[in-house]
């Protein structure tokens, strides 16, 4: 009996470890919907972009095992997807950035937002400001990106997150990793 209980606990522990390396199902559904919409795809595959610890140490945004993906339709690269968290006033929010093959932002989306205030950063109108931006720009909150009253912390945080991502993409592109 003890062996069965021990085996069960080991299996649960291993399952938890393996699941922790994937996007949660609720985020995966939202990412899937956005990829299908933006790239007008019904079927596609995602391939993790793996970054060494040495390279990651030079990046403004750390690239985890499951947050930067190449998007393929059959064997053709159609773009990139990046999923991460950014700080809000007392919590974090999940966001998605989609790039074309030239690393131009084609879509940004707030996937989950947990605060009572500041959810305005999830509006399509505000997020459109990031579309068309590429690795050659540095965005300034309040100048290039419109400020949002009541969402200052989250809006600044999203702007900083996008800037750091674009800097990281520049380094990865220069080193021919992506």
From TrEMBL:
Q: Which GO terms describe its molecular function?
A: electron transfer activity; FMN binding
What is this protein called in UniProt?
FMN-binding protein
Q: Which domain of life is it from?
A: Bacteria
- Annotated FMN-binding domain ranges read 88-169
List the record's Gene Ontology CC terms alphabetically. Answer: plasma membrane
Q: Where are the transmembrane segments?
A: none
Q: Name one GO biological process term.
A: electron transport chain
Query: Which species?
Result: Urechidicola croceus
Keywords assigned by UniProt?
A: Electron transport, Flavoprotein, FMN, Phosphoprotein, Transport
Entry annotated with the keyword Zinc: no
